[in-house]
Amino acid sequence: MTNSTRERSLCTRRFNIGFKQSIPIGYNWGIARGVTSALACLPDGLRERLTETQENRDKFQELYESVNLLSATDALKLFHDDILTKKAVEQSGSTEASVSVGGAQEHISNSSSLGTYSTKLQSLLLESPEIKVQFFHQEASTPDRC
Questions:
Q1: In the prediction, which pLDDT does 105 show?
Q2: pTM across the whole model
Q3: Which of 3, 34, 39, 94 has the most neighbouring CB atoms within 10 Å?
Q4: Residue 96 in contact with residue 86, Cβ under 8 Å?
Q5: Beta partners for 96?
Q6: Are 129 and 118 in contact (CB under 8 A)?
Q7: Are the C-beta atoms of residues 84 and 99 closer than 8 Å to each other?
Q8: How far is CA 30 from CA 68, 101, 115, in A?
Q9: What pLDDT is recorded for position 21?
Q10: How far apart are CA 122 and CA 133, in angstroms?
């Protein structure tokens, strides 16, 4: 194998690894964006039937607004930061890491920044049994229903 062939092979492997890492997070972020957008577009009466309390409707609206403020470029940056954080945590062997991102020192826990959107949505869906959503769980590598 020539150096050029090895380099291409290594690049391909790295790309495939990155792609596999992005699937569950991107899928679940898209689900959070889509579900909250769909709920925001529904007439009030239908939204009230799907989400029983005003508090839950307000939480769905807040999640909708925060998800839609995040551009695809910002989401990609968050995903990159999450990977760097995970790598730092794995190297340090601790559950939390202090990572320098964009020149600023940020204290980041082991959870994914993008993952918080789907986590919040899953929490809200537990209180709204009329809404059925399928999430992607990385451990099983298949979508799960919530």
A1: 33
A2: 0.70
A3: 39
A4: no
A5: 109
A6: no
A7: yes
A8: 11, 24, 11
A9: 82
A10: 9
Distances (CA, A) of 73 to 9, 18, 76, 106: 27, 16, 5, 20
Answer yes or no: are the C-beta atoms of 126 and 60 closer than 8 Å.
no
Q: Where residue 50 falls among pLDDT bands split at 50, 70, 90?
A: very high
Secondary structure of residue 144 in the 3-state scheme: strand
Q: How far apart (Å, rounded) are the C-alpha atoms in residues 31 and 28?
A: 5
Name the residue ranges covered by the structural domains of the chain: 3-71+112-145
pLDDT band at 52 (very low <50, low <70, confident <90, very high): confident
Give me the residue label for tokens 């559950």.
Answer: 95
Q: How far is residue 126's CA from residue 20's CA, in Å, rounded to a whole number?
A: 28
- Coil, strand, or helix at residue 109? strand
CA distance 81 to 98: 12
Eight-class DSSP state of 111: S
Q: Find out whether 34 and 60 touch, Cβ atoms under 8 Å.
A: no
In terms of DSSP H, where are the helices of the chain?
Answer: 3-41, 44-50, 54-69, 72-92, 115-126
**In the Cβ-directed half-sphere of 106, how many Cα atoms lie within 13 Å?**
15
